[in-house]
Amino acid sequence: MAHDNSSGSGHPAADSSADPSAHGQELQVATGTGVISRDAVVDPGLPPHRKRVTDLDPKKDKRAERAVYTLFYLSIAGSVWAVAAYMAFPIEPEDIASVRLNNLFIGLGMALALLAIGIGAVHWGKALMHDEEGIDYRHKVGGNQASRDRAVEIMHQANVESGIGRRALIRNSLIGSLIVFPLPGIALFRGLAPYDEDPVELMQHTMWKEGTRLARDPSGTPIKASDVTLGSAFHVIPENLHEADHVLNEKAKAIVLLMRLKPEDLVEEESKKDWSYDGIVAYSKVCTHVGCPVALYEQQTHHLLCPCHQSQFDVTNHCAVIFGPAARPLPQLPITVDDEGYLVARSDFHEPVGPSFWERH
Fold first, then answer.
1. For residue 199, is the peptide bond before it cis, meaning its omega torsion is within 30 degrees of 0?
2. At the top level of its lineage, which domain of life is listed (predicted)?
3. Which of the 8 DSSP states describes residue 228?
């Protein structure tokens, strides 16, 4: 009597005996020519290679070559234009329109320079470089003579396949564009300091001088010693800052952080005991690492933190560096009070403010 092994759904029931692999048997596949093993699948190989139009037509090859070196020459023009724009559209003090023009034209020149190099290199690779499939076999890295000889062969082969040795215009224009491309960036570094003044001298002196009142930033309201409560911190500018020719430049150098601690918590050198007043101390807000604003004051630990690179300074000990990349303490502004009880500077800073790469005397 025949038995039906199918389920109610019409599909054969699962049976482990029907799976040859369950009994260690080799699974075989029936083909038109016989039976082959599952592991004997034939590698179909790579599809036939299709040549590019530049491989088939010398005129189109020449046209692609012209396009590539033209793009590299455009890159050179963009870099030169960016340098010229830096000089032709200078930033004028307090003139935001000059900033916009300067950024616009320099940016356009640098964008053209970079885009032209990128597009030219991609077009070179897709249209002109060697277009045959290859296999890179893994091998042990060694430094013997055979390896070095093979490296020379590979370099020679790369030269032949890329055509950089025989396509002189592409090679020379690429080298020229790569040499000229960094020039706008180098030119922009010149804007970090005025043309007619010594940057070291500029950072050596600020607007602080004897008798200059400490004022709140940004209101310019003078600060009395009685206004500074224990544990408080004030962002401070010179009271006469508005009289400066270049307010932002002077503020960037003279900005100060004012704090009040218990006098007994301060560890002061003998020569600097009169630089504070009744536990009130003032330190430059400009980090001695790269010039970021040190504005985070931890009231309980008396630490100042620079948010840019996490340098930390100990306010109780002349703002000595206790963590991070800063190389020296924050410069201290000597302070006292005048006859009306307002906090005033005793003098300017005794050392340059800002990053430590400035020369120090």
1. no
2. Bacteria
3. S
